[in-house]
Amino acid sequence: MGTHNVAFLGLGAMGLPMALNLARKGFIVSGWNRSPGRGAALTEAGGRLAESLHNAVAEASCIVTMLSGPAAVAAVALGPDGFLTAAPKGAVWVECSTIGPEAVRKLAAAAEAAGVQFIDAPVLGSVGPATKGTLHFVAGGSADAVASARPVMLAMGDGITHFGPVGAGAGAKVISNMVTATLVSAVAEGLALGERLGLDREQVAAMLGEGPVASPIVKLKAPIMLNEQFAPAFQLKLMEKDLGLALAEAHRLGAALPTASGAHEAYAGARTAGMGELDFAAVSAFLRLMARGPLGRD
Ligand code: NAP
Fold first, then answer.
1. 70 to each of 19, 165, 196, 221, how far by Cα in Å?
2. Tell me, what CATH number does 242's domain have?
3. Which end of the chain is more exposed for a tag (fewer CB within 10 A), N or C?
4. 219 CA to centre of ligand 1 in angstroms
5. Is residue 158 domain-shared with residue 218, that is, in the same domain?
6. Residue 173 known to be catalytic
């Protein structure tokens, strides 16, 4: 397929830089965001901001959604005001949010009923890769639909893994975030125990961040845990949501995930303690408090 006319729905921390890459690479981009005022940079990059969902998708051959969670995507897609009632037949919908396989399957059925092709294509990588155009897409859907959306994805990223039918990309993404979240909370717990043992926090962070435990995410987050500057690259409440999606799938399948369950408890506790809008590395501040014991005796 030639150059797509792209409707981009959701111009948040991830969506805006992704839409900017499309506009800068020559795609015709109509952006839409629920709250006005977000996405002004899109017009400077050659795109346009649509005043309504229906207007955004009216001419689209490809519709990209990048929204916070399952309820947000359902609100934007379904019902009389949802974009599916106005989307051109045969357009391909590339659903990039992290919403899990169950929500994806329902949305794909609604898309099919509206004559719209569907792929789930959540992304590996945060705001940095979204800005640089180096996201990795983990995709589910028919080979034809993935091939059709390929140029759009490769304008926002540098790789695509097609995992299988609809829901397979969402499943892969949930696994990736589940492992990321548990690894980061495990490192945070190591730091907290080190402190209780009277060890030097910097030395423990260096051991975990540079030794056999090291990985790109640990290298990135260990210094942030040390200096406790939690400006959000990826909000803790979104990571809690993703762990919840993994646990919901496990529950559906009757599978036990004890490690992820423990991590989910830690992120939920941190969110309840008011850290939901911080970077998910802030789970370390919560686990540091927990390690002080029930009376916070230190
Ligand atoms: P964000 O900055 O909070 O943006 C969320 C977007 O969803 C905003 O455009 C928001 O609109 C919209 N939204 C929320 N509820 C809505 C509703 N009911 N109806 C319509 N729009 C709604 O989040 P983000 O960091 O870009 O994350 C977006 C998705 O990407 C999430 O699924 C996240 O898990 C995933 N993800 C994030 C990262 C990351 O590092 N940030 C990395 C990979 C994947 P308003 O402006 O009106 O609130």
1. 20, 19, 40, 27
2. 1.10.1040.10
3. C
4. 25
5. no
6. yes
pLDDT one-digit tens code per residue, 182-194: 999 999 999 999 9
Question: How far apart are the CA of 214 and the centre of ligand 1, in A?
Answer: 29
Question: In the structure, which protein residues have their CB atom closer than 6 angstroms to any atom of ligand 1?
Answer: 10-15, 33-35, 38, 66-69, 71-72, 75-76, 97-98, 123, 126-127, 233-234, 238
Angle at 99 between CA 97 and CA 103, to 5 degrees: 125
Determine the pLDDT at residue 297: 53
How is residue 214 written in tokens? 């090291």
DSSP β-ladder status, 123-124 and 135-140: antiparallel
Q: Whose CA is nearest to atom 8 of ligand 1?
A: 12
Pair 35, 148 in one domain: yes
Query: Which of 101, 130, 165 is the last residue in one of the domains?
Result: 165
Ligand 1, atom 16: closest residue by C-alpha: 72
Number of domains in the chain: 2
Q: What is the pLDDT of residues 224-271, one digit of tens each?
A: 999 999 999 899 999 999 999 999 999 999 999 999 999 999 999 999
The whole-model pTM stands at 0.93
Domain that holds residue 217: 172-296
